[in-house]
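# step 3/5: fold
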Amino acid sequence: MSQQGRPAVVRMIPVDQIEVINPRERNSRVFAEIVDNIKAIGLKKPIVVTPRATANGIERYLLVCGEGRLKAFRALGESNIPALVVSVSDEDAFIMSLTENIARRQYRALELLAGIRDLQERGYAPKAIAEKTGLSTQYVQGILMLLRHGEERLVIAVEKGKIPLNAALSIVGAGDSDEAIQAALQDAYDSGKLRGRQLMDARRIIERRKVLGRMAGRNMPRKAPDVTSSSLVRTYQREVGRQKAMVKKAEFTQQRLLFVVGALRQLFADENFVNLLRAEGLATLPKYLAERVWPGGSAA
């Protein structure tokens, strides 16, 4: 039965009469496998569509589920495709399509992010989104909190399993203060939220987030903002802030290097220390450091 009480039936539908209401990008390798599979053994599962009347009397359909299969049929030059025809509203068709994409076993983190955002923008509460997608309410609430703060980079890290959700929320709660963020990382480590590789991944993500910003990149589907004088000023200020942060980090690194060079010069001035290093076979330095410790690049 369809969502509106009418029995769903499988029919052969012309592929050129089907409109995709929630298109998404697809991995070329995966798509090629779908095409090859359908070419070899046929369509194992029909697509799902819902009919729509048109002014000229030509029957049209909105695709609810099965975009990959539909594209494969078109790529194979097929004119008709088996489809399960259901009667649902435009809103329900979009939601069914969206949640089917989110609930797939293999999805891209950006697709999940976009799907949850779309459901929220359509007025769905976290509990309703969780019910429609099979995700936990706590997980959806956490993702939505990250999205409200524009933390797409952290959302993707969570989806890829690089860091746990509760650790990402701790990082966001720390704000923009480097000290507070480092304290949040330390707390996450002490509490067992971040250990080993995850701690290293978290540090890399925070560094990229600091330098490149919180947004994930070009692939995230979102409306292009209007360019205004104030937005240009904000963009300029953000870029200046990033440049200042890079300069500050470079200066800090240079100070550390000068400290190391000074310390090595003092140590290598001690003959007893040098003899000990020679006895252990450690009397040489990397060329970069040697050129700074000794003017000629080697011990006199």
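# step 4/5: annotate
The first strand starts at residue 9 and ends at 14.
# step 5/5: archive (pending)
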